[in-house]
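Input sequence (355 aa), recorded before submission:
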Amino acid sequence: MPTASIDTFIACSLMVLLVLTAMANTSKLLYPYVDGNGMASVTEKYREISKYILLNPGTPANWGENAETVPENFGLAKDDLGTIFDLDVDKVSRLNSENAYALSYAQAFSALGMPEVSFKLEIKPIFDIAINLTATYPSADETTYKFRITTEKNGAPIAAELNYYVIAKEHVAAGFTTAENGEIQLNITISNSVEGPALLVAFARAKSNAKIVSFEAHPFAHNSQEPQYKNAFLRLDPLKNSLSVVFLNQEISVLEAYAFTPDYHAVLKPTLNGNNSVTYAIPQFVSASPTILVVSGLNTTTFFIEWTAYPQLPLQFGADFQNRDTLSNVFAYTYIVTINSALYSCTVWLGGPKS
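Predicted structure, token format:
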């Protein structure tokens, strides 16, 4: 499928979003009657439940930002003011199992209040970005790394603008380029005096709509051993515009913390220091984009870099529908949702027990 066709698909998706706006209040009102008797079909019933989860804030309405709060009623909306599919960044982040304050599926299932309905959620960028290191060219004073970066949806290329950052010890560099045909060959050069490993953070914005952003972070060796797996040294938990950093062993010391968006980046200042933790305030950037949070440090004398996204996407949350022996048909509904002004894809699966 050519790029123009994909851009048309994205534009049509946004038109569907506008049409659904007129249905928002109806979906909220229908929920009390979604009991299997007032619906014309199971499909209609599940569709209304899927919209209810995304259109309502739950109870209490601010359950997402309060780390220890378990909602009495489950909903992901930012508020109850009628904005269509505008999800709360903290409620979404608390669905990610990597977050220390994550809600369990049992808690969400109970709070939904429909024991005959199992559900699953997937929230992710509307298109994909992939980063691959394809070649390394060392010299006496510096090393150049060649990356292949692709932007696509369902195998078809997406025309995108690429903002990127390279982070290493006492080193941050930024750049910009475009992927007209969904592919970029990017050369990154780092002085050999810089200590690694290094991290390449990339944001790809669809040229058809600046609110459609995909992102990725790719660690790579530079004057260092291969980077450790994610969450090897730190646990990073963003919530309520704060980043909690917990050290995973006693030999850890933090050097720097950063926040990145396509248009801005900042060095974070600690607001609270503990014996094995530190907390930072996350700036509220005006970019319609997730914020990538990067923390560097030392494990004894070995340099490392950890990262996470805010909201913590992509994520899957909920029931395992792989084994359907005890379930009737499973229905899936996909919506375009907004989180901090950026647009994402959200799919809701719903199923009930066999009758």
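Checked by second reader. The mean pLDDT is 89.
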